[in-house]
Amino acid sequence: RKHTVNLDSKTTNVRVEPFALEMGIKFELHVTISGTTINVTEIPELSIPDDWVRDKLELHFCKPERGGGEIENVEYDKMSRRAVITFLRAE
Fold it and tell me: How big is the chain by its Cα radius of gyration, in Å?
């Protein structure tokens, strides 16, 4: 639990304490599939940066167990609460 850390020729003692992480955000998406693109609508308004929303969408739809694949591009429009995800191949 106790550790000594050396920083720039100075030493300090620190103590590690467990802490609870906040639960992730869970939401429902509506998807339309066409060739190599899917349209995602009704994305909820989230209090996270737009880049994070794009990353979350990419991580969700790239997983093979969800029928996903390698993603070429994610276009996200916060105002319309929509995204267009383009895959490298139709899968």
Answer: 20
